[in-house]
Amino acid sequence: MLTNKKHKLSSKVWLEYKDKPLIGKGGAEILEAIEKENSISKAAESLGMSYRYVWNYLHDIQLTLEEPTVETFKGGKSGGGGAAGTLTYAFGSELTAFEKQYPSITVAPHLFEGSSLVAQDENLTQSLSLEAAADTTAMPTVLFPNLANYEIAFGQTQMVIIVNLHSSAGKELDNMWNAAKELTVNSTAWTTAWKNMFTLIALNTTTTVGVSNPFTDPSGFQAAGMIRLAGLYFFGNVTYLYDAIYNNPSRYVMANSEDDLVPLMQTDHIDFITSAYESNAIPQTANQTSLAWITLPTQVNLGVLGNTPYYNEANFDYTELGATQSFVVNPVLYCVTIPMLSTNPAAATLFIQYLYTSAGQSILEKYGITPFSQGIVWPAANASNVPSVIKPYTVPVNSTTISQFAGA
After folding, report:
1. If you classify domain 82-156+349-404 with CATH, what class do you get?
2. Burial 30-58 (b: 16+ CB within 10 A, else e)
């Protein structure tokens, strides 16, 4: 018998599947956190882990079990969907109007977070009735070809910058922008004004920029692309402003999605949020005396379809925690799909159809989204998979529009 008090009996418990370790104490804590938070990203945050680590852990379990690991969101009979966090306000209004139009359909709560996070959640859970993203790559990269096989670009928005009017730098930028509006576009004075504004944003070592994670949120890599384009257009060097921010962690605060940055603006002393769309800046700054948003020149705002070849000059690779991904800088397009395992494809089909009504398009415009009168279906070979009632509102991608779809 051991009598030395320095010794103690301990043990480890884990689950095995087909004689292989599956889940231990850490895995149990992850699953408990997901059940509590009903979100993989929030669970990761609560545990102090990166989203990528938690997602990879769950993905490994799913590969072993050959079935979904967790069901973080249930569509239910009414068919809940998932969408980019930047669609929270626009889709929230669309869903309210849709429910009035179809009183027999009760709309379930929707999941709003970074486009890549929504796609990865669907990959793990297969529980959404509909999915929408803020770029053309998130859903094809994660869901094609096994869980979805087409996407419809239904509208576009542009990059803007949200400004903290409680900071001296934020006030200065807002004043500079208002003065620049009075100048002739592309004049020497206008160009100098914008060079001074981007100098304040990126090169002033006392300012802090809010950005979202390129791996989890399209506005994260699109903001980086916008900064790279500003460096190229105004300074003749695509990496000049980008390196000043992204190579200096003390210069930025990074969150998983654009929606998470505004609440952090005051507490983390953020002067500017560059990971911002007009579609979110409008509702997020409404009735806020401490916040404003400024538009950007068309050469850098990712809001002009015809500028795609120029925007592509800012394409880049981004590395985080040893993982590297290549990003294509394209105009900001909102896309939607109905997953193959949709929990309610009929309701999802009606909702997409509603987006193309005059009422649905008016709501999009109210939130800074320019709707397409005909949605663009990618890939063209799969246009026949679009539900028949939606087809009249769409056209297959063609030689003119295919450049909008990265990797096409």
Report:
1. alpha beta
2. bbebbeebebbbbbbbebebbbbebbebb
